[in-house]
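## retry 2 of 3
previous attempt timed out at serialization; input unchanged, resubmitting
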Amino acid sequence: MREVISTKDAPQAIGPYSQAIKANGFVFVSGQVAIDPATQQVIQGGVATQTDRVLRNLSEILEAAGSGLGKVVRATVFLKNMSEFTAMNEVYGKYFSSSPPARSTVEVARLPKDVLVEIDVIALE
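## retry succeeded, writing output
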């Protein structure tokens, strides 16, 4: 069985995708960028500020699915510039301070809306 997850407390999808899908005991959250859900606009600031907004968006979606950041088992981080890894990682580490999930981090040429970071996650329900 498959359930679409949607919340107004996170940015609305900007394409043909769901914020998340709950299936077989997992929550698959689409990549989130630094969009303020209240304005649907990209927030201003560097990679640390954007990473914080992304993780808050992910948290809201996971909570709407009955999960949370503490149940994340896998994350993928997409960075516009790998030289900003340390700044991103510092903020990321505050959200995943104990038993962090498995993770990959990759540098990409460009991200939606020209943001600096995008993160997607898979969590347990």
